[in-house]
Design brief:
This protein is of the alpha/beta class and 251 residues long. The chain folds into 2 domains: 2-50; 72-249, Rossmann fold, CATH 3.40.50.150. Helix content is 36%, strand content 21%. Strands 5-4-3-6-7-9-8 form a 7-stranded mixed β-sheet, with helices on both faces. A two-stranded antiparallel ribbon has the order 1-2. β1 and β2 form a beta hairpin.
């Protein structure tokens, strides 16, 4: 038996010799040392597991946030148009009548409906989402607001599923940090852009897994995907965002 960390042989329990006690004491100490090392090993293993349990992007191996799947009403806060200066955002992306726009990570369609009104009567908006619930919400909203020029697209974590050379402008609004394979998504987006098209990314600084991503990381990944930064703004800060980056495809 083992009692209080010391191994005790029941055959000699009644009258152990001094040699037996010395041997049993050494065995008990070995047992306790092993148990201590096992405990330390378990703690180290748990710590390592905690460090590597976060979701990382497919190519750049950085952290990203779990995509939001809750109620899209949170995107409809009063005064957001003014805080984000969404009309100026569309001006900088040259969004106007007749243009084709892609809203990647469209959520409940907050930007899609505003872009759809801007590009009327002949323009079109692709509202890209990986969530079928959001796709349904956008379709219902477009019908409710009489916007027949919004087309929903069910994308994937690596591909927005946009037609080649189809869009004049793309906006990823407060969603880039949630993309699991950002370089692939940007490369596919680049294929969907017409000559002279622009890509806008609005987000806030962060680690990636905290619903934000540092602008330098965004720029680096965009460069990997074949884009160059052409303009950078911070007028979106009143809406709790840190930057509005505008890219164009490299030649």
């Amino acid at each position: 038996m083992i009692k209080e960390g010391i191994f005790v042989n029941p055959l000699f329990f009644a009258s152990p010799s001094s040699a037996d006690l010395r041997l049993e004491s050494r065995i008990g100490k070995v047992f306790m040392v092993k148990r201590r090392f096992l405990g330390v090993g378990l703690l180290v293993g748990l710590a390592l597991s905690a460090c590597t349990s976060g979701q990382v992007t497919a190519q750049t191996k950085r952290l990203f946030s779990e995509p939001y799947t809750g109620n899209p009403i949170i995107f409809e806060s009063p005064g957001r148009d003014q805080r984000l200066q969404i009309e100026r955002v569309m001006d900088e992306l040259a969004i106007g009548p007749g243009k084709v726009v892609a809203d990647i990570g469209a959520g409940g369609g907050w930007f899609a409906v505003r872009a759809a009104k801007r590009v009327q009567p002949t323009g079109q908006v692709y509202a890209v989402e990986i969530s079928q619930n959001f796709i349904n919400a956008i379709n219902e909203r477009a019908k409710r607001e009489g916007l027949s020029n919004i087309r929903t697209v069910r994308g994937t974590a690596a591909d927005p599923k946009l037609p080649d050379k189809s869009v004049d402008a793309v906006l990823i609004l407060k969603a880039y940090h949630e993309i699991a394979d950002p370089v692939s998504v940007l490369r596919k987006t680049r294929q969907a852009m017409k000559s002279g098209a622009l890509l806008g990314i609005i987000d806030k600084n962060g680690r990636g897994d905290d619903h934000g991503l540092n602008r330098e990381v965004v720029i680096k990944e965009a460069n990997q995907a074949g884009f160059k930064l052409v303009k950078s703004f911070d007028f979106v800060k009143p809406d709790d965002e840190d930057y509005f980056l505008v890219f164009s495809p490299t030649l």
